Amino acid sequence: MTKRTLFHTTPIYYVNDVPHAGHAYCTIASDALARARRLHGDDVFFLTGTDEHGQNIERIAREKGVHEQDYCDQVSGVFKALWASLDIQYDGYIRTTDELHKRGVLKLWEKLRLAKTPDGQDAVYRGKYAGWYCPRCEAFKTDDEMKQPGNICPDHERPCEWTEEENFFFRLSAYQTVLEDLIRSDRMKIAPESRKNEVLAVVKQGLQDFSISRARVKWGIPIPDDPSHVFYVWVDALSNYITALGYADDSPQYQKFWGQDAERMHIIGKEIIRFHCLYWPGLLIAAGLNPPSRVFAHGWMTKDGKKLSKSTGNIIDTKVLADQYGVDAVRYYFLRETSFGQDWDFSESGLAQRYNSDLANDFGNLVSRSLTMIAKYCDLKIPAKVEEGAELRVNTESVFAAYEALNVSAALTEIWGYISDANQWIVQTAPWNVAKDPARAAELNAFLYRLAERVRVLALLASPVIPSSAGKVLDMLGIPKESPARTSAAWGLLAPGQPLGPITPLFPRIELKKAAPAAEEKTHTVNDDKELAPTTAPATDGPKQSPPLTTTATAPAAPPESELVGIEAFGALDLRVARVTAAEKIKGSKKLLKLQLDVGGVPRQIVSGIAEAYEPEQMVGRTIIIIANLKPAKLMGVESHGMLLAATVDGKAVLAGFEKDVPSGTRVK
Ligand SMILES: [Zn+2]
Fold first, then answer.
1. Average pLDDT over residues 409-427
2. Distance 326 CA to ligand 1 centre (A)
């Protein structure tokens, strides 16, 4: 087998916020690919990192009153800590504020500013850019992209600003034919196929030149020809893929992993495919460098059928899940549940089901039965070696091919097929009966050696996705740290006579009832003088299949239909952010406070039963959430126009609020 060279990357993640589940999803899949290819014997460099420049970072740092670099250091540190906790084994971590990166960008610029297009024009020119600009996206928006009225950015729900400036432009339009040929010929292979067609459709519409600098932004890499400009994200961020390898110094590592013979691959989310399949190869070709050879775009995660969004609270906290179910279980569920490339819907009960059925039951049981039998019948040692035998031969190349195609769910389906076959094989062979007959000792020995090898190979094949559990299996088999039996799936590497390690449960079963709510949102109660029912809808994702081989597990019961409300019922409530301008106790009531509110500039009065928990002085200036379209009511003779949201803890109200400042009048949904 020839040793191949793979360089692959995640996108670099923007430090405008801490990591979310989408980042974790992409990075876990990239890590699994790296591990699978290393296991297959390839030379791999897996890169991730953070994108740290631009107007957004400038703004956030200003708001927080810290230096941009300190802010970037902090958030980049959060990403690194998460990757460590999720067992991500990268070979390089690039930050766009690294000196190595800055030098690389300047070297690339030297090539670009002198470059000629295929038809002999300057590849870079000065031009005027004008348009509607969303500073949060750091992008100009077309009329089609904005919501009307008000030229609103659909991603940020804020108005775009009309912006005009002189910029440096890259003449992408002159690379139309070159790029189309690169894509059609599969010299740059775009997968899944639907994404390739999407990019070709964009090419067909005619490629537009794009701006590669920004005036007015200071937090970035200044352009030597005009230091009042910094490089815009297309040059600053995309170039990380080569600067990280040492492009600035033409290092041996760069030559090897971005060389003609290397697989130069980007794994990205589908929303940034144009930039990776058109802008980036365009820039590289202009600079006389190799374009990527492969781009893979994955789909989006939703939760309970809805887009993940911090503002609506529909989030998946990977860290919380990993703490509850184990890192390997999260990695496994993310990659097993849906073919990588497709959109998919996360549900915690689905994760719990997979944990119990695939990990605890199928794989965990196989390992513990096998090792228990070897311990019992072979005196805690690996039995004498035999030839492979036809039963349950594992087609390792087929599994590696699925990993290589980033069809991780197919690789896992195949491995779990072998696991299930092995469990059946044990039942059919009934080694406990074979052991009763001394004349069949050789048969028993052969069966147990083959079984031990199957377990070892299946653990290895699953190790890209569940690395720490696979490592535990190899430890239980007693395989020394330096043994090739830990890194090669070739037959017969288990050494006969080798003592087993201590046998420990691999995936202890979890009680589904307890497991279910870990990362669900907390419910709050609407509280007024009288307590009302919780307003959040209960989770509706019931179990997909009944848990096998157990009588203890209880799935979360789906609430009866009549208790569920449709989204329209929730939408009928007008929840608003309000600021308390004045507060006083109501005479004759221990519980009630009269609050004067500002709701987006409109005054309003409500009465609320929070006086036992909050003094009037504590309330003034506070931001609260109210139901604004509640029928007016009179409490102790005082008019109340709406009610506020609070939870009740030990009989006392705790107000609902926001983690950041939100303008009064904002709708809560
Ligand atoms: Zn925006």
1. 96
2. 36
Helix (H) or strand (E) run with residue 257 in it = helix 252-257
Tokens 């009549």, residue located? 562
**Torsion sign over Cα 417, 419, 425, 430:** negative
Q: Has residue 72 been placed in a domain?
A: yes
- Tens of pLDDT along 447-456? 999 999 999 9
Q: How far apart are CA 400 and CA 130, in angstroms?
A: 50
Strands of the sheet with 226-231, listed across from one edge: 213-214, 226-231, 222-223
Q: What is the pLDDT of residues 611-634, one digit of tens each?
A: 888 887 677 678 899 988 888 888
Asked if the structure places residue 494 within a domain, the reply is no
CATH number at residue 42: 3.40.50.620
Q: How far is the CA of 521 from the centre of ligand 1 (A)?
A: 26
- Please report, for the domain that includes residue 615, its CATH number: 2.40.50.140
Residues 612 and 622 sit within 8 Å (Cβ to Cβ): no
pLDDT at residue 636, as a whole number: 84
Mind listing the pLDDT tens digit for each residue in 276-329? 999 999 999 999 999 999 999 999 999 988 888 888 888 999 999 999 999 999
CATH number at residue 453: 1.10.730.10
Radius of gyration of the chain (CA): 30
Is 88 a residue whose pLDDT tops 50?
yes
* Residue 536 pLDDT greater than 50, yes or no: no
- Catalytic residue positions? 20, 23, 134, 137, 153, 156, 307, 310
Q: Is the pLDDT of residue 87 over 80?
A: yes
Mean per-residue pLDDT, 92-107: 98
| d(CA 46, ligand 1 centre) in Å | 30
pTM: 0.75
Question: Of 263, 282, 299, which marks where a domain is finished?
Answer: 299
CA 149 to chain centre: 34
Quote the CA–CA distance of 524 and 406 in Å, as a whole number: 41
**Residue 635 dihedral angles phi and psi, to the nearest 5°:** -120, 125
In the chain, the number of structural domains is 3
CA dihedral of residues 305, 306, 312, 313 (deg, nearest 10)? 50
- Cα gap 293→258, rounded to integer Å: 10
Q: How far is CA 458 from CA 83, 393, 396, 486, 489, in A?
A: 25, 11, 9, 12, 9
Range of the domain at 41: 5-299
* 233 C-alpha to ligand 1 centroid (Å): 15
Is there a domain that residue 320 lies in?
no
Cα 222 to ligand 1 centre (Å): 24
